[in-house]
DNA sequence: TCAACAATCTAATTCAAATTAGTAAGGCGA
DNA sequence: TCGCCTTACTAATTTGAATTAGATTGTTGA
């Protein structure tokens, strides 16, 4: 049991050379240092014979880097409910890490005891374990992030940019332009009166969508019949009735969860989509097979955002990119069956 | 900007002591070595002031602990499809890690280039960065695991036990007993003729279920009308018809995916569940709201398995548990609406 | 008053690999 | 035959933390 792992020194003894020479040979630097090809061969043979495997830890210690990328969220990463906001982003981060040959560290320890996660829990910054980190989540802990940045720690944000812009690089989606694009498609089909149903929260991605909506309505000369906020379980049939009575022929819905609630209420009213009312979702649909309709909606490139965040972090760490760089990825319009021309009678 | 990471030596200088003393103070060994409480306080203050965090790499090199738990799978952890086998287990692992105050390292780097993941890929064993690892997945890489174990590396398996038993501790579910329990419930309701629909693969958890099924049938004197294997998309209505004609009044289905296919075929046949045929699932249902029926089925405690694996790993690392220990968690029977008494006419 | 001892702390070493600064041996020109 | 340059290597150092083996100072009992 527990046969000691062979070290470079063991190879050196077997080949009758020094540890230095072994290191040089194994790293292909024989030419630079004029190592005899025969010696090199002896070393390689000895290494193979002993089943040598470099010790990552020693290598990392010397090199100053771990090849560890931290992933930090202020909430648990794998929530118990379905429809994890992070899920797709995590898939992207994993793919990015695979490509870059790095491992991921999920900072779970800091969630301990308190429901809240503090980076500087007990006065230590665990994030430092990793070479740099990707920060997810909407919750605001700006003071901690400022301190992190002050300490020279490198990180990249995904999905938000409020304070991020002043603190470090970020990757997010171009929500405003995407929604403006939706508006012009809607306009092109003949719609002139539109309603908007958003979430009650004021997270940046939502605010930007609203910005795009208003800008689009203004530019295209469309009338905003209603702009209303609802939480989960709060969509009311009477509101939809009212909006339609008000002349709206199309409804933009910010969140996918609310979208399904809208479908239920519309069903209750006996209204036809898109015959009586067109409905467009402004977010990705994680599981289209579970959706009630073939929704017309936007695709937010969450997976690409995750993958790009990894690349960006490594670029910053390697000095290939200044730490103020940011990137915005485009959303795609997915045509479905819930956007049509407005009913001619209206 | 980019202030170099503080080392113990920096703390030592600030506090006016040696690096040794700093190390002792930070590791709570002041009592053993008679360090003055005032000195200790000075050191702690200096450490906080500098924002000191131990260097994982140096510690790992020395053989120390890092409060890092590795998670290794031979396949990507976050698969692109829905219905991730790992998902629930990962949730459990995360919860376990949170409770234990440890962080998780997801070993993604080894998936690089080759679709296959080798621990000793490119001659480096990254696992050593973590204190120990939890190993998931069905794929067989026994030679690598044997080597890891020989090197004294500690790990715990989740969900399998074939070779695991000889290599280290494992946590898995008690499938056979659970299925036997299902059989006795079915028997108690009056069923005497039963059919079994399994997956085509021969993974351990499936083999155990079949074992439990056969043992139950034998003990209870029930007739096995059919025992058939199907892959995704291979369930045929004719098979169900045939099985029912053969007298089967209840069908046990190994996998949740196949369960839904069975529902579709049964619908096509105009057969009533459970009036004409009772159906029992032998696996968890991740998203009951997306299920076509209120299935009667087994709950595999995947989340507990993950959480328990973390505890077990730490027990082994701390020497509280011998490294041959294993644990089997019970599955729960979830009564639903798809198991009833057999039709009296039969 | 001196050895013994406790109380406090430190120098030196270790872990495995990478790198810097040399060294030894041989050849060649002047 | 002295000095200089190659060729082909090696000794020593570095990385950050933990540990082993001391070292220093002061106190106390005989």
From TrEMBL, chains A, B:
The record's listing under CDD domains reads: HTH_LacI, PBP1_LacI_sugar_binding-like
Q: Which UniProt keywords apply?
A: DNA-binding, Repressor, Transcription, Transcription regulation
Does this UniProt record's set of keywords contain Cell division?
A: no
Cross-referenced InterPro entries, in alphabetical order? HTH_LacI, LacI/GalR-like_sensor, Lambda_DNA-bd_dom_sf, Peripla_BP_I
Write down the Gene3D superfamilies for this protein, in alphabetical order: 3.40.50.2300, lambda repressor-like DNA-binding domains
| One of the Pfam families matching this protein, by short name | Peripla_BP_3
**Domain HTH lacI-type, first and last residues per copy:** 6-63
**PANTHER family (alphabetical):** HTH-TYPE TRANSCRIPTIONAL REPRESSOR PURR-RELATED (PTHR30146:SF148), LACI-RELATED TRANSCRIPTIONAL REPRESSOR (PTHR30146)
Name it. LacI family transcriptional regulator
């Amino acid at each position: 049991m527990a046969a000691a792992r062979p070290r470079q020194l063991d190879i050196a003894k077997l080949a009758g050379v020094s540890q230095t020479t072994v290191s040089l040979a194994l790293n292909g630097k024989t030419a630079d240092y004029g190592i005899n090809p025969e010696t090199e061969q002896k070393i390689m043979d000895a290494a193979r014979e002993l089943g040598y495997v470099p010790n990552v830890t020693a290598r990392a210690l010397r090199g100053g880097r771990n090849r560890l990328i931290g992933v930090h969220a202020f909430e648990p990463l794998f929530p118990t409910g379905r429809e994890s906001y992070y899920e797709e982003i995590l898939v992207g981060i994993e793919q990015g890490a695979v490509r870059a040959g790095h491992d991921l560290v999920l900072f779970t320890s800091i969630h301990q005891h308190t429901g809240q996660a503090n980076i500087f829990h007990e006065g230590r910054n665990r994030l430092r374990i990793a070479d740099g980190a990707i920060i997810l989540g909407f919750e605001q802990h700006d003071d901690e992030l400022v301190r992190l940045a002050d300490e020279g720690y490198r990180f990249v944000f995904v999905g938000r940019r409020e304070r991020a812009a002043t603190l470090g690089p970020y990757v997010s989606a171009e929500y405003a332009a995407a929604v403006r694009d939706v508006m012009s498609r809607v306009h092109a089909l003949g719609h002139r009166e539109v309603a908007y149903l958003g979430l009650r929260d004021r997270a940046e991605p939502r605010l930007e969508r609203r910005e795009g909506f208003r800008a689009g309505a203004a530019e295209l000369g469309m009338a905003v019949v209603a702009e209303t906020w609802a939480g989960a379980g709060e969509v009311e049939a009477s509101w939809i009735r009212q909006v339609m009575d008000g002349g709206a022929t199309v409804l933009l819905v910010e969140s996918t969860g609310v979208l399904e609630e809208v479908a239920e209420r519309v069903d209750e009213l006996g209204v036809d989509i898109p015959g009586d009312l067109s409905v467009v979702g402004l977010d990705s649909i994680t599981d289209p097979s579970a959706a009630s309709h073939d929704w017309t909606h936007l695709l937010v490139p969450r997976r690409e955002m995750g993958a790009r965040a990894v690349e960006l972090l490594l670029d910053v760490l390697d000095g290939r990119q200044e730490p103020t760089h940011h990137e915005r990825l485009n959303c795609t319009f997915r045509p479905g069956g819930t956007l049509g021309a407005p009913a001619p009678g209206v």
